[in-house]
Amino acid sequence: MTHAPFLGGAQGEAKKLRNDGYRTQRGGTTIPPASSKGLVALQQVAILRAALEQGTVGRERLEARLGSSAIGLLDAKLEPMRWYPADAVAELIEANWELCLGRNADLAVSAGHTLFRELKESGRYQQLEYAAGDHDLSVGVEALRHTRLVGSVVLNLFNFLELGYELVSENPTEICITYDRAELYPELARYVGQGFVQKSAEEMGASLECSSKRVRPDRVQYRLMIEPTG
User: Fold this and answer.
1) Which is more confident, 24 or 53?
2) Of 30, 61, 73, 118, which residue is 20 to 30 A from 229 by alpha carbon distance?
3) Would you tell me how many other CB atoms lie within 10 Å of the CB of residue 130?
4) Which domains does the chain carry?
């Protein structure tokens, strides 16, 4: 597996990491321009199927919210490392957000904590192994490297996003992360991402205050305030 070089940056210097490298798989197979990883689709489908089986969500009500592609994913056998149409996956995410989670942001952030643990334990993303190493996140450049590594995992799940990050201040450490081209990155994903970043910092012994907002339809922004706990 090849990794992009670490991208550091001085205070106030914004960095961008484009996602164009995820357009082609090994063997030259072209990935559709906007796709989401099967890991994401599987998680949403599992929750929605459970809700259908338990009767907490009716099939007609669910299908009324979904297009034909999303309904097809709901009934298909999905593979975790394959790519699926981002618009259909976004519909599944939105349905889960509305019908199963009741737009509860706290539950979504908690799901982000769980997702971090699951992906780290899976060993699929070596970025998380490095990010969990011995680094002092109260030091701006270390925090920026950590942010880049953790943030790049999201690019492995949503191939259409563009990651940007900036060291805003160093005392205390404040970092701004942006995801552009985020029209198909729903609000549930935004809150799960917030929990994901928060958990990654906690595992390194840092106290992190993380907030997020959609500043425009195609841009999601996270702001991180980091204080060492040790």
Assistant:
1) 53
2) 118
3) 15
4) 15-25+126-228 (3.30.1380.20), 30-100 (no CATH)
